[in-house]
Hints:
Elements (H helix, E strand, L loop, with lengths): L2 H21 L5 H28 L6 H20 L3 H32 L6 E5 L2 E5 L9 E4 L9 E5 L2 E4 L1 H4 L5 E3 L4 E2 L4 E2 L4 E5 L7 H10 L7 H35 L6 H15 L2 H20 L2 E3 L2 H8 L1 E7 L5 E11 L5 H11 L6 H10 L8 E7 L3 E6 L2 E6 L1 H7 L11 E7 L2 E12 L3 H10 L4 E5 L4 H11 L3 E3 L4 H14 L5 E6 L5 H6 L2 E4 L6 H6 L2 E3 L5 H36 L5 H20 L8
Parallel strand pairs: 11-18, 11-20, 18-19, 20-21, 21-22
Antiparallel strand pairs: 1-2, 1-3, 3-9, 4-7, 4-9, 5-6, 5-8, 10-22, 12-17, 13-14, 14-15, 15-16, 16-17
Helix pairs in contact: 1-2, 1-4, 2-3, 2-4, 3-4, 3-8, 4-9, 4-20, 7-8, 7-9, 8-19, 8-20, 9-19, 9-20, 10-19, 11-12, 14-19, 19-20
Amino acid sequence: MNKKQKKMLFRILLSAALLIALHFTPFTGAVRFLAYMVPYVIIGYDILRKAGLGIKNRQVFDECFLMAVATVGAIAIGLVENGDYTEAVAVMLFYQVGEWFQSYAVGKSRRNISELMDIRPDYANLLEDGKLVQVDPDEVEIGTIIVVQPGEKVPIDGVVVEGTSTLNTAALTGESLPRDAIPGDEIISGCVNMTGLLKIRTTKEFGESTVSKILDLVENASSRKSRSEDFIAKFARVYTPAVCYGALALAILPPLVRMLALGLAPAWGDWIYRALTFLVISCPCALVISIPLSFFAGIGGASNAGVLVKGSNYLETLSQTDYVVFDKTGTLTQGVFEVVGIHHNTIDEAKLIEYAALAESASSHPISKSLQKAYGAELDRGRVHNIQEISGHGVTAEVDGHTVAAGNDKLMAKLGIPSVPCRQVGTIIHVALDGQYVGHILISDVVKPTAKEAIAALKKIGVEKNVMLTGDADAVAQQVAGELGIDQVYSQLLPADKVSKVEQLLNEKPAKKKLAFVGDGINDAPVLSRADIGIAMGAMGSDAAIEAADVVLMDDDPLKIAKAIKISRKCLGIVYQNIVFALAIKGICLVLGALGIANMWLAIFADVGVMILAVLNAIRALFVKKL
Length: 627
């Protein structure tokens, strides 16, 4: 609770205490009036001041004006008729109670987003003359060596050049599982260094770093309004003046009709009281406050789960997603080639990998790197001689005096060595030793552990079609699609072909159903921009993802896609609940108020009670952990 909220709570409690005390006092006449004005001014001075400023600035019709007119009118009736000012003070008191609840709810959702804002670094450490000097991260140039001590935030994106540590990425990804960092690892700003001292060579300026882009994204999220918010804003601009004129008509026309047409007493006090009740009931606070608050809370809850939504308009579109189109590499698969099998080997598996890794040791190709990774030890290149690379085929080399050939079936055919074909899909490295076939190694891009579960989760929440786009060969694409349960797959696509396919799918789907494209954000920026909603996977450190996507998942877990859709649907459900509930209650109470059945106490419920219930309902959008 902030200082302003504490002050308001004190005013509410003081006014309530005075109102209760005055109920038991014998004051009459002017003394009673002045006594009741004390709690009224304590609780309502700011509302009266805002109403006055609104009139002065010619922006009359807002909730402050409605409250001021209603309460001042009720006081005037009390002065003229019965000396009862309780209702006037109570209306202002309960209105402020509702405002306090709204302020507290906004503060709570802001605190959730502020947890994300805690990733903002205050300083960067530079090593000068053997001493650490703290400087503003904005002043650090690319290529500078910065020092991050245990417990400090990583201020700028870079590469670890010295030290090992464990990083807490919870503020970015929503996941509590720590991540290890060793020399050579890329490291992004916003992580917290937990254990060892790290020296990092910066690869970006602070303004271009991940943390800076994320903070800018979150800070600007509220500026992108949804259609529901726009509707409510336009509705309030028309609705508020309409009910003010309606209340004025209710106060004047019936007494005039009674007096001039029916020959009855005008009963001015009765009809003015009804008009004031009508004004209090009509206040659009529940809608004007709870709808933006619901979206704000939804964005806050999503950010806590590691899902950044750039605005409430995207949250609304995401809730209508029925088609999800995936890029394959880096989205559903790791994007890293690994040895996944060794088949038909006539020598020990470890020895086969060792010979292949040594033979390929001079190459920088991803296949060579995957063999070296599978070998798992430092390569002694002194054991390798006479390396010959045969373009499009593979390599031959002498390893420990043995002739080793490692490559595809074309290499084996060229050397006249019979090879055994592999039935599995992937890159096949056939290996021969001294002219004899000794087996083959299967290398492929590994499917992410949660990819299959992610597709199943999307189907469970009602997504109609899952489509995969890839530049890979059809056999590889079909295998991955079959393994994951993808409905439709398009293979051997260039980046421009992906845009064409997405446009084709957009034209084929019903207009009301939305298509989301999920990509790794580096090569997929055009497609992310073209889809109804672009979702960037693995966006930590990817500038293209943060720029092009509408929704950014702060880790590369495809399970978060279904979670993001569920969060958006919960948020929109709350928005529609509040709209229907508020309009229904207000509509009923307005009719009752005009007929004279509803008094000021029912008006208080119709205004403040409905607002408090709508605000409390809106807060539910924050709680997304169990979705």
